[in-house]
Every structure is written in C-alpha cells, then in structure tokens.
Amino acid sequence: xxxxxxxxxxxxxxxxxxxxxxxxxxxxxxxxxxxxxxxxxxxxxxxxxxxxxxxxxxxxxxxxxxxxxxxxxxxxxxxxxxxxxxxxxxxxxxxxxxxxxxxxxxxxxxxxxxxxxxxxxxxxxxxxxxxxxxxxxxxxxxxxxxxxxxxxxxxxxxxxxxxxxxxxxxxxxxxxxxxxxxxxxxxxxxxxxxxxxxxxxxxxxxxxxxxxxxxxxxxxxxxxxxxxxxxxxxxxx
Length: 237
Prior knowledge:
Uracil-DNA Glycosylase, subunit E
C-alpha cells in the first residue's frame, strides 16, 4: 500500500483511469450516454462528461463523504462529484461554511474548487435512471470505492450521504476486512458508529427532495460536518 503522498497520488490516478474507462453495466452506460446526447434545454450547448465519475478532493483527506451516484445533468455533465446541480450547490456551500472547501459553489471542473482535509466519492459512479441503481450495479461498482478508501490512508471519518451512502460505506468497510457491529448500525441524520479505525456519520442526502422540503437545512448539514471535523481531529471552521 502506498505510504507517501506522491505514491498515493499515482495509485489514485491509476484507479481513476481504470474507473473512467469502465463499461461494465450496460444499462448505466446506455443511460449516461443517452442523457449526454439528448441533454436538457439549459445545457444544450454544453459537452457532457458521460463517463464514470472519479472521486474528488484531498488525497490526504481525513474525512471522506460517500454519496449515491452522479446526477444526470450534474456530475454526469461536469465530470466532478456533486458539481453543476442543486445538490452540489447545497453540499459545497456547507463544506465552505466549515472551511473544508475553498468556495461555496461548484460549477465545473475548471472553477478552482479545492477541498482541504476532505474528499467526495460515491458508491455508484455512473448516473442511473431515476437515481436508482440496481443492487447488481451497486455491487459491481462497489470495488472502486473500496479500493479508493484503502488508498486514502489518512481518512478517519466517513460521512454517508443518505441511506445508500451509509450502506455503501458499511459494505466498503466490510470489504477491507473490518467487522461491522451487531446489530448493524442504522442510518439516520447525525447517526454515529465506530468501525475499526473509522467513525461513520450519517447525514441526509443534499438532494433537492430533501433541501426543498426542509428535511435537510444548511445548519443541519454543517453540524454533521463540524462533528466530522471534531472526530477527525482537525481544526474546526
């Protein structure tokens, strides 16, 4: 396992290159590419990424945020996690409020966004129809987040964004050989579990379904992120 940051960066770059070339799930490949061809009116002049989306952020991160999958017209368009849609706007504003992100908005890969001490990834790396990957697609993609986690040797806190992210994090932790407590930790906003060297935190997903209804508010998400900073033994923002 790489120890130095240079070796880690090389290993993660190799993993990302393998990921971006993946065409293992025919349904997801067809969907992500069809969305990129048909587009939506507001992005009709934009080129879409239309490939699996790598993780984004600090390779020395102590906090790893795990989401569900790329949005059809967000990450599937921009090629960067939680970038270019309402969910990303909400998430990056919260990350910026606690000093984990350099700016509050994320529009595209060239916007200068930098994460410090944090990294964002997802259980499934291709945009799924209706934001609902199948269990087969989840399981086929899970090794990518498992391998990414294993390379991120400084991570001490994992934030599961939504129940899918929470469950995916538990599956990844199992895959790297850690024992999950019994009864199995249940997802909830602000839920916490200790698994080996990691603290697992739960947060409602910053989907517009949650943010528009008030199920998730900025102070709620910022509170979970500040708790993650505290558990990761990082300076609080």
